[in-house]
Design goal:
Shape: globular
Structural class: alpha+beta
Low-confidence stretches: none
Mean pLDDT: 95
Distance between the termini: 63 Å
Largest sheet: 7 strands, mixed
Number of helices: 17
Amino acid sequence: MNTSFILAVDCGTSSARTIIFDAVTGKQVSVAQIPWQRTEDDHGATRFDTEGNWKIICSCIRKNLEDFDARKVIAVTTTSFRHGLVCIDRDGSVVFACHNADPRSDEQVKRLNETGLAETVFRITGDSPTINALPILMWLRENHPESFSKIWKALSVAGWASYKLSGKTAVEPSMASATCLFDVKKLEWSDEVLKIAGFGPEILPDLVPSDSRVGSITKEVAFETGLLEGTPVFVPLGDTQAAMIATGDIAPGRSSLIGGTFWLEAQTTGEPITDEALFLRTQCHCVKDVWFNEGCSFYVGPFISWFVKTFGCGNSESEGVYAKDFDELTRKAALVPPGAYGLQAIWSNLTNVSNWRHCAPAFLDWDILEPSRSSKEVFFRAILEMAAMLAFGDFERIRNITGLWPSSMSFSGGAASNELLAQILSDVMKSKITVFDSRECSALGGVMIASAASGIYDSLESSVKSMSSIKTEYLPSVEANEVYMAKYRRWRSIYDSLLELSDDGTTKHLWIAAGARKHT
């Protein structure tokens, strides 16, 4: 039997990855990855270089196909982070493009907050207007009306990649629900929110089911990448939702943590439940009749990476040296007792999408007179513990919405490959943690959908069952949990004080959302 393959284009926060998977087993057979060309101006505006980044995607695909027969690729799927925006005109030229967490719509968000319309938007869309398409498009219309008037379609980054591949635009519920323009209960673009925004639905892509084929590889793209013209291209998907497919979290009552640049905590429900406290998002899954509430811990991956690169033995940007330093720090940190002698690593706040503020990063309470209690591995363990406690805090907020605590949960993404971190997470959460073989769950989830839609499997459930493979399960320590809970309560008190310093301007916020209200 001839083996067939599916190519996944995964647009992450930090880099582009293209991965070829076996369409039956889900096994990775080729991976290429290149960091994005991303720039920020003095005001934090995050510019997405579509011309340069398309070249990066094409380069990755060509790398995949160097020793691979493109005739065996039966489909292409795309996934990405959900809060970038790429606006194109009718010729496909880019009018405007920004990366994730762009803060330039500060005035528009403040106006929505002051008039009470932000809460109205939240009740309909399940999210607060901060970093999503709604306020950014409002900013563009008010500040650059000529550019706004040229917009034919406003797309996600995965939507833009899919358009570049196929020449077609479309969006499915998981990505649409990230725009703050989509009614998560009615599953359609919201006329009421669009009226608030001041523009119509004509600039938004057509809504299609999450397993839809939207087009085919064009002749031009075939020349640029080596893919065959006519290869089917499937609808772009949200990264978290796709990852939750790969981990089998496709029914209500499942809990999931995706650990990448941002850590995303999610619990599925059988109906859309918006957060009365306005802290957490409600998003649509890629799976019909499934929603989830989601928290987001900021810059966990970059904080860990910064520490390893700065304080690792090799002190090098080399990937091989970094991996060696990471493993060595992990090995030594495993010998440090739970609680890291009270050392506190501080950066991200708990999720509050309606008023997102993060204090300046800090390390507190290390003993300069006791080197064994303030070594690099103690600091490193404190970082890993804090990452797990951020997840715990957001799952507490999720429990306030759903009434459920995750006695077990899946853990995926690059962070899940660290055994010490997975065990700390289990101890902090007092939950069983399941880690999967694949480190590319977002891409694999898209492949599972495309495989079922291509007829290789008779259902998504069959595709997930055949392709998903558990690597390890971790069980919690009651004794360690008691230490972590005391440390968590202390951290929450400390964080409020440090946030006041950043709100006062004494220190600089790690990140602050557009329209954030200080001292609340």
